[in-house]
User: Fold this.
Amino acid sequence: MDIEYRYTQDFEQNQLHDLFLSVQWSSGQYPDKLQIAMKNSDCVISAWHGDMLVGLINALSDGVMTAYFHYLLVHPEYQAKGVGKQLASLALGKYNDYARKVLIAYDKEVGFYQGLGFEIGTGKTPMFVTFLTT
Assistant:
């Protein structure tokens, strides 16, 4: 399978809508906001199979110390094929010299992220104010 990885922040709303809803993330219901969020991210790396957006990771950053990976998602038909691992590897490489790389993982994905070198924060609790359900 030929997957092309691109550094771009420009997406059509329908591409984001389809990808986010494919993994049942409620943020997919707001493709207009997602489009702006991608443009406002420090970095977005996307995975493409032909013209189809099949995955992406984005980072928010202070530019020197901390990078926060907010989204990492892969279309279900492309999961367990190395796409997510490659997206994460590219993003971690970009922020290699940063002191802190942070993300919040769903419980079922913790093992995946641990395999990439992330650790569970002892004595830390993620906290939210949100209207999204996933």
